[in-house]
What we know:
The protein is α+β, with helices and mostly antiparallel strands. It is built from 13 helices and 28 strands.
Amino acid sequence: xxxxxxxxxxxxxxxxxxxxxxxxxxxxxxxxxxxxxxxxxxxxxxxxxxxxxxxxxxxxxxxxxxxxxxxxxxxxxxxxxxxxxxxxxxxxxxxxxxxxxxxxxxxxxxxxxxxxxxxxxxxxxxxxxxxxxxxxxxxxxxxxxxxxxxxxxxxxxxxxxxxxxxxxxxxxxxxxxxxxxxxxxxxxxxxxxxxxxxxxxxxxxxxxxxxxxxxxxxxxxxxxxxxxxxxxxxxxxxxxxxxxxxxxxxxxxxxxxxxxxxxxxxxxxxxxxxxxxxxxxxxxxxxxxxxxxxxxxxxxxxxxxxxxxxxxxxxxxxxxxxxxxxxxxxxxxxxxxxxxxxxxxxxxxxxxxxxxxxxxxxxxxxxxxxxxxxxxxxxxxxxxxxxxxxxxxxxxxxxxxxxxxxxxxxxxxxxxxxxxxxxxxxxxxxxxxxxxxxxxxxxxxxxxxxxxxxxxxxxxxxxxxxxxxxxxxxxxxxxxxxxxxxxxxxxxxxxxxxxxxxxxxxxxxxxxxxxxxxxxxxxxxxxxxxxxxxxxxxxxxxxxxxxxxxxxxx
Length: 554
Ligand SMILES: [Zn+2]
C-alpha cells in the first residue's frame, strides 16, 4: 500500500514536488534513512514489543526489548522514536543508560562491553500521545476511530512515516528482526489483532486485556500493527503449495455475513499468486485479513482491509477497462505484498518499486488467472492512463525518500514489457518464483532485483530498468513507412537502450526487431501498410513520421 495521490488527488503531486524542491533533505532524514555508524554495528534479532493503548485520552505506554547481535564492537547505539512520544528510560542489564536525543534519534551510551558475536538486549520504556494519522493510510500514525455502531476502533498505519511514530526501534528498513512479539493491552471491550499468531490472552484486574501475538518470520517494522475493535472471527484451511495454510478473517462483528462472501476470493487469489510467485511466504504465521478503519495496508500476515466489501478500488476500476471490477482491489494488491514487500523487502525507501511495481503487476496477473492472458494485458495497459511521468520512480538513497507514484502503473507496465522481452512465459514464471526463492525473507536493493532478472532471463535488461525507473521518459519508437520499407529508431531513451520490439512486418503477425537510437531499415510485406502495428503489450510511445529519415542503415 502507499501513495494513491495520483488517482485520488491529482492536484497534490505538483504541490508535493514544489515543497520537496524548496526543502532539501534534512539531517533528520539522513539519521532516519541511512545506515549510520550507530546502527551498522548491531543486527536486530528480536523485538519484544509491549504497548498499552488508551482510547480515552489517545495515549499509549509501553516498552520494547531490542535484542541484537553485535557485528562489530561499539558502545554507542541509535534508537528511533518520533516526537511527541517520550522516552522514559533506556536500560541494559538493569542499568539505566545515558541518552542524547537528536531530533527523533536517541543515541544511547552502553556501559556493558559489546563483544562481536554477543547477543544483548536494550530495553526502551516510553509513553505519550502519538501523532494521529490525518489521512491514513497515506500519512501515518495512530487512528482512534469508532465503527458505525459507535464502538471504539484503534489502528495503526505508518508506512513511509515509519514505525517509530508509535514504537521505539531501529527505524531502518534494511534491518528486520528475525522474529517479534507484539503484546497489545487494550480496554476489555476491545480485541486486538496483530501480526503472526495469537499466543495468549491475559485479562488484568484493572479492566484491560493483553493480546500477545508472535511472528516467527522477519518483519518490516512498518508492518507491525495494532487493530483493536469489536471483531468477529472465522477461518478456513487452504491447501497450498507448502501444505495446509490457515486463513483467519477478522471483520467487524456486524460485517460477518458480508465478509464470509467477499473473502471467498482469498483462496483463488492465493492459488494464482502461489503459481506465479511460489509458496506463500508465511505458512508458520498464517494468512489473515483484518478489517481496518482506513483503506488498507500490507501488514504482514495481518493485511489491513478497508475496501468496504466490494470489488474494485473503493468500487472503481483503476484500469478503466471494467476488468478491475472482477476482484477486490485491497485483497489482491495488499496480499501480493506478502511476496513483494514482505518476503522480498526494500533496504531503502528509494527502491519502493520493488514493492509497488510488483504488487501493481500482480493485479494484472490475477486478472489473467481469472479471465485469461488477453484480459490481464488489457488491465495493465488500461492503467497507463494513470501514469504521470512527473519524477523518476527511484528516489534518492539514504534519506528515506520515496520516488514517484509512477512506481505503481509505470512500474507494472515496465514489468509487463519485460515479460514480452523475455518472450517465454514459463521462463517468466520461473523468474518471479526464483526472485521469491532467492531473496526469501530478505531485504534487498533494487539493483539486486534487476540483476537477478537479467541473469535469470539471460538478457541484459539494465538499460530497460534504467529507462523506466530513473527517467521521466517513455521510449519513443519513431518510424516511417513507405515503399515496403520500415525505417525506425528509439528516441527519448538512455544511451545504449536497445530494447527489442514486436511489430507487424508481414500479414502473418508480429516479428521481433531490434531498434537502437540509430535509424535502421526493414522490409515490410504487408498487403496494406495501414495495418502496420506495434505490439501494444510493450509500454512505448509510437511516433509515425511522414518524411523518411535522411540516413538509415539496413
Ligand atoms: Zn502497495
